[in-house]
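hey so u asked for the seq, here:
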Amino acid sequence: MSLNSQFPKQVPFLPGHVFSDPFKENHHKTQQFSYINGTVQEKTNFIHEEFDPNLLDSMKFSTPPNLTYGRRQPPENDYIPRIQPPWLKYDRAVLRFYGYFQESVVENPNENYRIRKVIIYYYLSDGTIHITEPRIPNSGIPQGLFIKRQKIPKMLGKQDFYQWEDFQLCQNVNFFERVFRIQDCDSYTREFYEYMGKPLGLPEQLPKDNFEGQRETKELKINPPDTKEYKEYFEVKLGGGHPNGGLNKYLQNDRKVLSFDIIWDDSSIEGQLNYYTLNYYLADDTCEVKEVRKQNSGKDPYPLMLRRQKIPKQPILTHYPGMTLKKEEYYSPQDLICGNTVKIYGRECFIYGCDDFTKEYYLNVLGIQQKPAVLKQERGKKFYHPVPPYNGYGYEEDSLGSVYSLQPKPPKKDVRKNFTQDQFILRFEARLISEVREENSRRFIISFYCGDDTIQVYQTSERNSGIWGGKFLERSRQKNPLTNDYYTEKDFQLGAIVQFNVYKFQLIRGDEFTINYMKQKPDVFKEADISQIIAKLRLFADNYPNFDSFLLDLMKKLDKQLKGYIDFDELSQGLKELGFNLTLQEQYILMREFDKNGEWKLCMRSLWEGLVGRRNE
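ran it, structure tokens below
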């Protein structure tokens, strides 16, 4: 009995009211597969399989139905084949050819090509081929298996494969667009071709390349030119004394170092004056050259320009040390004098100073007084740090933050403007300006967000126009290519041309909210102030005898048919004939101000009263 069954039934079956049975010992899970008497069996207690009772009855009491199709054909040639197949006739029979191919070598002054030896195996049992390349030590080329065993076509893309009849000595074969030259074969291959009635020709000599000649030269052993070292070695090996000619000098001059200040004028394109310290060790006449580090020099700090060694006056450069029999002359303390030039492996270094110990050594031991040379003082370099161009990620202020500081801070935002102007969005209808005539008919909606000066462009489309509508430009800040400053709200006037990236747009009209917003800000949108537009019109009256004649001429040129109302095209044409240069924004505001009926027609009477009223004021 489980522990949970002992609790009263009124206890709800919820988490916290059910406890595990501590007396339970069997925790296994049921399995579907099991071993019974060494046989894998499946428990089918919970599996229901459908069966056909008619099929079971036929299998129990009568001959089962024929469940196979067709009968097995009697075997032919299966016990003792009359015609042996190739896999039986040529079992373990392989033809072996020796060849090579030429490979070009680039950027190597010693060779421009290399001869690579290969061994071609042809298996007669199935007509497959595989190629191996013998390994050559220190060749610098991965060698071994070159082509895996497979049938190789004579031409790529075709099912015509190479047969043993296609191989002949002193001829070229093309394997996967690589040409191999067959120059020899083994004895079994030659006997096989003679047995088949197609004897092979004579082998040819394997050509040599520069790499083979250099390898033979390296492997050539040359006796040492001087046997003094060998004599000393054998003398010490037989128990004799070990001669040490420099021991006395080492004991007298140990830890005595002459230190010189040198300078090297690097005359290359990116060169400059380089300062070093030359240390001369009197114990073994070796030198080392250390670099003098300077802050903000722009160079990587290397500890040594030259490790400790003897510096030859005229170095003899060879491929390997000890190959030359010429004796080199090394620098000594007599050569290291302030004012002299030391040539260190092609670098002419000028000695301009030394330390106090070096001055005392030269004065007491050699009788030479070291006088430091006077160098011209270098002028302090002024570095100009140009601002890198904008990389296109984020805003330009974000990129400049990493230029001005190692720990960039986020750019400050105009929080007051964002709170006060965020709800104002100026929307304009614009057309695309393009050299392609069909592109000029495309219409767009340009939205300017006054809170953060961002711009968003949507393209409108008509049915069956072939133009896809939708988002054209993601909301972002755009720069004016003429001023290289970001666009602001004062740049958006009716008739103005704005450019985003490589696309130019002309603002045609604005919505009702945009026009009212412009009227409320006459200090920013001066062309939307009707008082300034009337004042601008009144300035043209200076070209007339009096103001009345100006009004009469204006009314005649605008309303030629004396209808009392004119549309926008008649207004633009009349102002053009009069020579009054009003912008599209000013014409648009003028049309809206004196449109009394809401039919987008200018009332001439209202215009007369507006001009006269403005004059009386």
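DSSP finds 15 helices and 24 strands in the chain. The CA atoms of residues 229 and 235 lie 10 Å apart.
lmk if thats what u needed
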